[in-house]
Each structure stands twice: as structure tokens, then as C-alpha cells.
Amino acid sequence: MRANSLALRLFLWSTAWTVLILAVTGFLLSSLYREAVERAFDSRLGVYLKTLVADVASPDQTSDTFPQSIGEPLFELPLSGWYWQVTRLDTEKPEIRASRSLWDSHLAPIEPGRGTVSIAGVRQDYTSGPDNQRLRLVERTIDLGEEGRYLVAVAGDAAEIEDEIRAFDQALLITIGTLGLILILTTLFQVRFGLAPLKRISESLAAIRSGAAERLEGRFPQEIAPLARELNALIDANREIVERARTHVGNLAHALKTPLSVLRNEAAGRDDPLAEKVMEQAGIMHDQVTRHLERARIAARLTVVGTVTPVRPIVAALARTMEKIYRDRAIAVTVSMPADVNFRGERHDLEEMVGNLVDNACKWARGQVAIEVLAEPGPTPDRPQLRIVVDDDGPGLTAEERDQVARRGRRLDESKPGSGLGLSIVLELATLYGGRFALAAAPTGGLRVELVLPAA
Prior knowledge:
- The protein is α+β, with helices and mostly antiparallel strands.
- It is about 50% helix and about 15% strand.
- The protein folds into 3 domains: about 1-205, 2-Layer Sandwich (Beta-Lactamase), CATH 3.30.450; about 225-300; about 310-455, Heat Shock Protein 90 (2-Layer Sandwich).
- It contains 8 helices and 13 strands.
- The strands form 3 sheets. It has a 6-stranded antiparallel sheet with strand order 2-1-6-5-4-3.
- Helix 6 runs antiparallel to helix 8 (about 420-430).
- The longest helix has about 50 residues, at about 5-55.
- It starts with 5 loop residues before the first helix and ends with a strand.
């Protein structure tokens, strides 16, 4: 999952919600468990409180001990954290009776307005005991009329509550953490599985672009099946438009070239200023028509998606052909190239570009033409390039002449056959394919032509 990808967005969004929901759930569970533990602890303290209230309200006259029925050893152990205290409030000086565990300390009553109060009038709250122990305290005021008014209090060690809650929170944290990890892994699987059809479409489009396939094949989920159908329809419509454009370009070429040839032939049979002017203008029209029809043909071909052409057989065949054509001048054409380099484009365009370059080199070479094809990395890893270098040992060109030679129909020497459109067409094709075309001095003293094109 790369940055700014749909998969990463879905994963992060789902993970964020998962973490948030689990965190809120954990907090709520911990809070509910704390309340349950406190209620259970208060119930335990309430039992002792009721026992004390009963002993205060109905003391056993035959017993010298108070209270008579608690029976909890912790109340006898000094500073055990478990304490009881009975305070008579209606005397001038409060009379206090307390458990032996309090030793010489006293329990402070709950301040008014703090803690909670049950229906039975029992108050509960946390307080500090001897040695700053944190205690859970329950207390109740009872009025016995003439027998007195008393405040009965029982306190327990709050560390028991905290230890139990801490153990629960640790178990809860482990459980929620494990559940969160499982949910995140499940989310990752769901994102990858759910977006797999989109990845298949992306890979299929790349295959079409590289020429390995012609259409989107396979079954797709209902949600993206219309997208696949529309893309296939678009590809088919594109091919149909290109075929129609090719047909129209061919028809237009024949429709225009034939009348121009008739005009030139008729003018060639006469010797007067009008005939010369007709010949001159007809030649200009012929060159312009040829050029613009060629550009239209090139543009139409470049709209075809997914064409890949092997380079080696084309260059090797052109080298053999040129040696045969220029056999009378003993031109030797040498080729150096890897075996597996491919051009991302149509075969005819590559033949036309390389053919024009090699033919031009053979026209001017004294005896040697060298062709070298190199595979190179492109501006991005998914856009490799191929470099075609053609050197000859001819007279070469100056820097000013090299600037002029690729212009439209520009010819520096009328003694060589041709229309002067060859290098210009190469430049047009290279530009339309997103490549580059450059002229330089060759190491052999002639002209070096470098053509950079997209590779597959």
C-alpha cells in the first residue's frame, strides 16, 4: 500500500475506527467493573455495619465485649486496614468506641456533600486512615431516643479494590490488544481482498499498454464490471476510429496526389512562364500535402494502445537491405544491439524512422555506416528507453547545418535524391512518441544521429 493509495486510506480509516471503538469499549468495561467491585465491597462492609447497628441498638447485657457478633480477626489486628468505630453524638464530649485495629487512631466522618447515600441512609466514600491508608468507608447515623444518638462506621482497605481492578484492567488490556491486532489484520486482508479486482484491472490495463493483451479479460465483481465493460468498449471504439482515420487518410492522399501529378505532367509539356509557375506551385503543394498527410497518418497510428515491436529483426533487415541498395558503392553497415530490446510503438513507424536515418547515412557515407542500439533506464522505473545511434564516415555537417537540416523539407544539397522530408518525418515521429532526436559529429568524422524512443 503506497502513499495516497485507496488501499492505504481504507486501511488507515478502518484501523483508526477500530482503535477508537476498542479504546472506548475498554474504558466503559473498566468503569463498569470498578462500579461492580465497589458495590460488592460496600455490600461486604454493609454486613459488618448492620451487625454493629444491631449491637448498638440491642446490646447483650450479659456480655462485657462490644461488639458481640462481628467475628472478623482483621478488626483485632493493629493497622490491618479493617476498622470499625461507634461514636455517640448526643453527649457533651463524643464517646468513641473503636476496633483494636485502629489502635490509638480514629476514623474521620464523611464530610457533608461528599460520597453517595443509599436509600437506607448509608453513606459511602473513600477516606484516609492511619498511616495515610486509603480506605473505603461506610457509615450510618442511628437515633435511639433516650438511649442516645450514634454514628456507626466501618472501613475496609481500598487496596483490595485497586488490586482487583488492576488485575482486571491488565487482562482487559491484553484481551483488547489481541482483539485489536486480529481486527487490524482482518481489515488488512479485507482491504487487499476487496480491492483485488481493481488491482487486476490496473494490471490488465498495463498489459494492454505494453501489448501483452488487447482487452480486459476475466470476471469482475458486480460493482466494477460496468467499468471493465466501458473500458473494453472504449478500446474497441479507439481501434475503430483509428482504422477509419487510416482509411480516410489513404483516400485523401490518392484524391489529392493524382490531380497534382496531372497538373505537373501537363505543365512539364509546355515551355512558358505559366507552366513554370504551375510546376513550382504544384511541387510546393505536393510537398505540403505529403507532409501533412504523413503527420495525420502518424497521429492516427499513435492512438493505438498497447503495440510492442521487437527492434533487432527490423534493424538487421534494414542493414541487409541498405547494403544491397548501395552495393555499387561498397557501403558496409555494421549493427550492434542486444537481442531482447523492444520498441513501444508500431513496427511501420520504427521501420520508417530507422530506415530514413540509415538511408540518409548511406547516401553520404564513404564506405562505413554503424548502427548501435542501447537499452537505457528512463525518467521513471516504469518508462525504459532505447537509444539508436547511426554513424557514418561521410563529410558530416557543421553546427549551423545541423540546426537547419531537420527543418521542414530543408535540403542542404540538391545533388542527392529525395524530397528532404526524411529527417523531418523522423523528428515528427520521435516527438509524437515522446522521444528525442539529435544530430552530432560522429567519431568517424561524419554525422552522428541519435534517436531516443520509449522501450517496452
